[in-house]
Amino acid sequence: MSQETHPSYAAKTLVRAGLLTIMALTALLVVAALWLGDQMNNQLAWTDHTHNVRSLLNHLERDLLEAESAERAYLYTGDEARLDDYNSVQNVSGKIEQLQTEVSDNREQVARMADLRQLVDAKLTFMARCISLKRNVHEMELRDLMATNTGVKLARDIHNKIAEMYGVEASLLEVRRGAVSRSQTGLNVLLLFGLGVELLVGFSILAFLGRRLAPLGPAAELAERIGSGDLTAEPLEVRVYDEVGRVNSNLNRMLENLRANADQNQAHADVVNQATARLAASTKEQAAALQQQSTALQQTSVTLEELSQSANQISDRSREVASRAEATAQAAGAGLESVRKSARSTAELVEQVQVVAERINALGEKTDAIRSIVLSVNDIAERSNVLALNAAILAAAAGSEGKGFTVVANEMKSLADQCKEATIQVRDLLGEVERGIQASVVLIEEAGRRGLAGSAFTDEASVSIHQLNSQVHDGTMAFSQIVAATSQQKLAFDQVSEALLSIRQASQQTTATTQQLEETTRELYRLSGQLVKSIESYRRKPGP
Asked: What is the pTM assigned to this prediction?
């Protein structure tokens, strides 16, 4: 691509100069045509003036001839009716005045008009004299006057003068007609010359524009190729820096910019396409992980429901154990009271011993029931411990969202351990109670065998029953602690259930958001692929 360093005249400047030239020539032609037209109008007006003078001369001569004919007919016949045509002499004075006005521009004609006026006045005076003599019947004087032949001479002089003036006007008419013809010829020549000059300037401008606009053909072809997406075209050659040169230069610049933008957009589109592919894979993996997490939370929720049911069972069994322990304490108190009464009345010892034996047997039966309940509580505590361990494992699998649930699971495990320890204590206490009951049974049986000598044994039985009452009271307190612990454990399970519900809702919301993100990422990946295809549709030169 080459470009001249020196400035060249802009095409629009030359076109404007040509148009101004054409407009100036047109203005000159119009002015010249108007001037020549005005000259022709003046000459035509003088021509009309000449025709008017000639017409007035003809009418004047005709009126005089009519008046003379009427005057002679009257003179020969004496008929007044013949004088009707003589009245035309009344128009003669007006025509004389008109002629005087019309020929006032020509001094020679003015002089001739003065002579003509004198002749006409003399002629009119002569005819009026003849008519007057005829009317007054002065025939002799009339014949003498007619014999002078003055009327004929005046008529001939008037005719000659009018002919002379008519000939002058005819000569002027020929001159003025020649001037009109010359003006018409000059106007035609001027118009033809101006039209030829304008055509020459117009064809020169068209030829110049053709040479200057010739580079627009390659420019249009380049623009069509760029419009069709072909960026492999070669730049245009710019020789001059006029409007067309600037168009070609800007097309070259646009081609270079489009190539640079296409290459840059191709690189960016590839990067975006790769990034969206990685983002799609990441969102897919995240969606799968969230789905696993949601499944784990659902399993944890089921496990917590089972733990809650177990806690309810533990609470119910603990309340039952506490109730039976209270009944055992009441029975032990009643046995102690019976023993005390037996000390005060040895007579009723046998009966009281039997009552105590029966109640102790009942206490043994209740102790057996308490042992089975304690075994159930111990079993439930073992299950609670296992469920707490499973909950801790699921909370650890839930990641950062399961930290709060891990604390609750640990608390559940602690409560289960406390329940287990309490059941161990209760079982130990029940063992001691059972041993006390067995000792009391032995003592009572011994008291029954010994009968009246059972005071000392009654005291021992009283001490044993007192110990039994104390141990039963301790067992009741332990079961109360178990009931409180199971209540706290139930509350903890409820809190864990609520926390798991919140975590599950958050997990579901996160899953939905991740699905939307995955769909958006797929759409972005599709659009980036379309962008890459759209950019690849531009044909570009291969890079270095």
From this structure: 0.35
